[in-house]
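Lecture 7 notes. Example A: sequence first, then its structure tokens.
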Amino acid sequence: MRYETAREIEVAVANYFSIFRYVIVPNIMAGGGIFQYEPDLCAINCITRYATEVEIKVSKSDVQKDLDKKHHHDDVRFQKLYFAIPEKLYKPDIIGLIPLMAGILVVDTGGHIIQKRRAHKNNNSTKWEYYDMYKVARLGTIRLWVIKKDLLHKYHIESKARGE
């Protein structure tokens, strides 16, 4: 792995925040009763109940597209906002496109994260209610079983191809 794809960066970010301290769920769809837009990754601290939004960007055009969106990453359910990018994107012209309030997490080719800029704290942010945390955690659990089913299906196809 080179940690340049969105999935690879998601794994690096989950490790950075720690799956033991946070409820971490990627790609929460808008309209699901949780958000009005689609955060790339939501990380809710299980102790403080404050959340962090992480936007994962893998190209300059990906960063530029974020500027065209109607929302401005100012949801009160998020205390902090980070942009996670692969190391190859850490260049002045790209950094200049990232909102100043956002922290920057750079993922190196080994999957390690270097915090290049701290996120500003949203002083209007609110703690999450347990029921809302449950909804996000439930979504993550549903995704786990869908992924396991897909992996099992792929395993059976590969087993047949090998003649097992």
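Example B, a different protein, same format:
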Amino acid sequence: MITRLWMGLRRPGTSAAEFRAHWRTVHAGLGAQLPGLRRYVQNHPVQADGLPPWPWFDGCSELDFDDLAAMRSSFASKAMREADADEARFADPVRFALAITERRVLIDQGPGAGAVRLLTFLRANPARGRQALLRAFQGPYAEVVAAAGPLRHEQLVVLPEAHGVEAAPACDAVDTIWFPSLDGAHAWLASPACAEAALHLAGWAFGTERALVDPVTVVGAG
């Protein structure tokens, strides 16, 4: 399964509330019409009482396709041209980021309604290389996360060659951990286990962005 992530910001003059409302209704309806689309999830940043991590985008979408050929065919469609035209009405056309990835589901206990998701975007230390980061990410880091018993744990590994003429990938991997509530997510971020997991990535990753999000499934299973 190929997952394309888009991390976008609202257009200047558009409020965060206006962005969310248009994205969740009008744009979601257009995106749902893409041919070959297997799954479409909108990740809406959440905050509680000013607690970190601060969102660095107004919205992060996930589009799943069977393979790269299906994704490229879909993006050449009339439905995609209509979605792109609509995106220009509410999203900044310059300040956005992309990542085309391959998804690995490591744990799935069925997050259920109300679950909160922690997204962590990782960039490899150029002095150590991408493969060194992925070995730590898929090995000892994943083992520590598994021991904490999350509702779901997914790892999305970027496919640099899949970007072609699109914007270069914004990161090398994306970690997604699901919790039953916002309090559970903040408890994990403050826990010794989270610090231990981060230590396994130290030196291999150089550049990390995090966001707590409310995942809204538009197409496919949650």
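Note on Example B: The radius of gyration is 17 Å. DSSP finds six helices and eight strands in the chain.
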